[in-house]
Amino acid sequence: MVRKPSHVDDAGAGNGGAESNKERKGLWSPEEDERLFTQITYHGVSTWSSVAQLAGLRRSGKSCRLRWMNYLRPDLKKEPITKREEELIVSLQRSLGNRWSTIAARMPGRTDNEIKNYWNSRIRKRLNAAAKQAEVAAGTEPPPPPPPAAEKKVVEVEPVNNGGTEAGPMPIPARFPVFECQLVDAGGGGGESTPSTTTTSTQQNSGDDSEASVGESNMIHFLSFDDLDYPAGDFLVDLPGAMDAWESELYPANSTSSLY
DNA sequence: AAGACACGCAACCGCAAACAA
DNA sequence: ATTGTTTGCGGTTGCGTGTCT
């Protein structure tokens, strides 16, 4: 569902007025999205407050960062969370606790906000319901809650480096089917903030045959799939025992209920 | 048909860590 | 060492939409 921007008329900059210096809040308009996307695509990020300024947005740097991270970033998956991903969320939540950003780091294309929302709106309810059901069935006190994640041994699983970047592969969203983009030669991935070469090209995004990534320089560069080592399945990790425990909790042996 | 309710998502808020001056 | 700024995170809220009564 897409909410209508709260102030569609005064989106972006350049329309002056007494409110022109007032920071905007609320939903982002398409024009603001475009300004932010273009700014970051062409010039990268030095500080988020400067991004807002340079893009001519009356938004806080914080707001710009959030919008980019949760919505505009080219690597975001737009498909619904799959059962496999849900299983991963549950197992990671069990071992890490509510460290959504850490969990998101292990799930390419998913944001902490998305995972958090998914957890709060769906999984937690199901787990609670399942626990209650088990409690009623047993007629006993519920089992003691698991110790806080901080006290548990945290199983650190290194995210798979599948694009030579911190963020991993970034499929270009269909939201921006065609746009101009500055190709940045990151100088062998050395994190140089000054691109050695740049090329402007037009990307036709099918979402299937190209990817982009944000390098250490925060500049976006687009890669062909052939350039990427995308180990299907490798970035989905299981924590030993976690899934079994979850499934037995969620799916009592005599129940045929499904998550879906 | 209309109101109530539940759900899902986007975005804000407050805090703490990291960093720079 | 101190202070101010920026960034990142998790919790929470507000609102649009779908479903139920």
From TrEMBL:
Low complexity bias spans: 193-207
UniProt xrefs under Pfam families: Myb_DNA-binding (PF00249)
Superkingdom to which the source organism belongs: Eukaryota
Domain Myb-like: 20-72, 73-123
InterPro entries membership: Homeodomain-like_sf, Myb_dom, Plant_SW-associated_TFs, SANT/Myb
Molecular function via GO: DNA binding
HTH myb-type domain ranges (all copies): 20-72, 73-127
Positions of the UniProt region annotated as Disordered: 1-30, 130-152, 183-213
Main location: nucleus
Subcellular location: Nucleus
UniProt keyword annotations, A-Z: DNA-binding, Nucleus, Repeat, Transcription, Transcription regulation
GO cellular component: nucleus
Comp. bias (Basic and acidic residues): 1-10
Name of the featured protein: Uncharacterized protein
Species this chain originates from: Digitaria exilis
